Amino acid sequence: MSTADFRVGFGYDSHRLVPSAGSGAIGRPLVIGGVLFRSEVGPRAHSDGDALMHAITDAVLGAAGLPDIGELFPDQDPRWKGAKSEVFLAEACRLAGERGWGIGNVDATVVVERPKLGPRKEEVRQNLARILRVDPAVVNVKGKTHELDGRTDDLIEAMAVVGMVRVRG
Ligand code: MG
């Protein structure tokens, strides 16, 4: 395989997590990789604030040499108003496919203090594989905590690397 047959893309996203339950709640329900988590905090975001989905979307777009998520799916565009983030990821894959690129593998890390990702990591992986239309074996999701003492607010961060292969010339 020549270097022209393989690409790597990187994506990063973060959202502040604020109370999403009880009086004065301003956060959205917490969705990670398209999976809804029971949580007292949720992202402050225009979209559904799914940091993992956004990071993977940007990685796909980056690998294919396409504009980034904010440029392709601007908040002001009524087409994307209230859209689930899986629509962005599916569209990024479609655009990359048009350019001849298919998903090779995905490796992502979610950094969040709470809730714990671990118990539902497999569910997240399966859901991402469904949207990406790949074998779950090529999708890897890791969960980490920030391990910062004395933080006054919560944050969710996601990083993703996507390998893409040339599927047609
Ligand atoms: Mg985002």
Protein architecture, described:
This protein has 169 residues and is of the alpha+beta class. Helix content is 25%, strand content 32%. The protein is built from 4 helices and 7 strands. A 5-stranded mixed beta sheet has the order 4-1-7-5-6. The protein has a two-stranded antiparallel ribbon with strand order 2-3. The relative contact order is 0.25. The model has no long low-confidence stretch (mean pLDDT 91). Residues 13, 15, 51, 54 line the site of magnesium ion.
Mean pLDDT: 91
| Spatial ordering of strands, largest sheet | 4-1-7-5-6
Number of strands: 7
Radius of gyration: 16 Å
Keywords:
alpha+beta, binds magnesium ion, single chain, 5-stranded mixed beta sheet, 169 residues, globular, 4 helices
Topology of helices and strands:
Layout: E1 6-19, E2 30-32, E3 35-37, E4 41-43, H1 51-63, H2 69-72, H3 85-98, E5 101-112, H4 121-132, E6 139-144, E7 154-166
Parallel strand pairs: 5-6
Antiparallel strand pairs: 1-4, 1-7, 2-3, 5-7
Bound molecules: magnesium ion (MG).
Compact overview of the structure:
With 169 residues, this protein is α+β, with helices and mostly antiparallel strands. It is 25% helix and 32% strand.
